[in-house]
Amino acid sequence: MWQSFAPKNQVEFVLPHIKLSGRLWGARDKPLLLALHGWLDNANSFEPLAEFLPHYQVLAIDWPGHGFSDHRPGHYPLHWIDYLYDLDALLTVLPQKPLAMVGHSLGGIIASAYTAAFPEKVNRLILIEALSPLFESPTQAKARLRKSFYQHEKQLTQQHRQVKIYDSIETAVRARAHLTGLAEPWCRLLLERNMRSEMNGLGWRSDPRLKLDSPLRLTFAQVDALMQDISVATLLICGKQGFSQLQSALPKARMWFKQLSEHIIEGDHHVHMDNAQGVAQLIRDFVE
Fold it and tell me: How would you write 70-95 as a 3-class SS string?
């Protein structure tokens, strides 16, 4: 059996280059928090957090290729830097400047890089299980480029192949929970926005290119140079059971961010979902 998922408090932004969708919680006269989700997630990932922030507007957008937002045109490889242009264009059309930018995982990577480059455009920065753009040794450049080319060539030759169809959302939820370890209620919340009805079941709404390797990644020297001397007040929240690399990178974070408040609380990589109340309390203390 298939079913249709009607979005609640849905919003749309028609930018010069693409249309973004999202969800908005809270009255329009309240301070605005702009929420940026992680890779293969969507705006629904901030629903649990928004419930504990009743005195704010929480605007969560779907990145291109996620949720109800448009896919990028063409078949070229995707790159994380493109999201910085999306974010900049979005900020120009918002009716008010966000009190803080809240980024989880990929969203935090984009938010931190944008803040480093354009600190005058960001009031406060909140990073959840994220710190800086990813980097790798320059010796990996050739192998990464070749792998990315092969993956994209293969996808182009198979793009007319029948896509995977699920008979119900419960089947897809169990599959994602098994693959990622994310609790089933949160998997369902995300999949309700990342799947769509097909003739004989449910298929993926998200852009398949998101699962392919990028042809290029920055080196540490490039990331280190970008992230120097960030003066914007920053809150960093890590889950105790989240990505261990983040906690080991805290000494570097203290060198990059001049005003850093850091917290490690109970929760996994999606700590803003499974410990939304704890994360909300830290955000309230930080912005107030």
Answer: CCCCCCCCCCCCHHHHHHHHHHHHCC
Give the separation between CA 270 and CA 223, rounded to whole angstroms. 24
Q: How confident is the model at residue 201 (pLDDT cuts 50, 70, 90)?
A: confident
Burial (CB < 10 A; 0-12, 13-18, 19+), residue 80, is middle
Our count of domains for the chain comes to 1
> In 3D, which of 85, 84, 127, 132 has the Cα closest to residue 102?
127
Encoded amino acid at 38, one letter: G
**Is residue 16 one of the residues assigned to a domain?**
yes
Question: What does each C-alpha distance from 22 to 13, 41, 90, 247 come to in angstroms?
Answer: 8, 12, 12, 30
**Confidence tier at 3 by pLDDT (50, 70, 90):** very low
Host domain of residue 228: 10-138+218-287
Name which of 168, 173, 169 is nearest 183 in CA terms.
Answer: 173
Instruction: Establish if 266 belongs to a structural domain.
Output: yes
The Cβ of residue 115 has, within 10 Å, a number of other Cβ atoms equal to: 24
How far apart (Å, rounded) are the C-alpha atoms in residues 273 and 278?
A: 10
pTM exceeds 0.90: yes
Which residues, 6 or more positions from 250, have their beta carbon under 8 angstroms from its beta carbon? 236, 262
Is 96 among the domain residues? yes
**1 pLDDT more than 60:** no
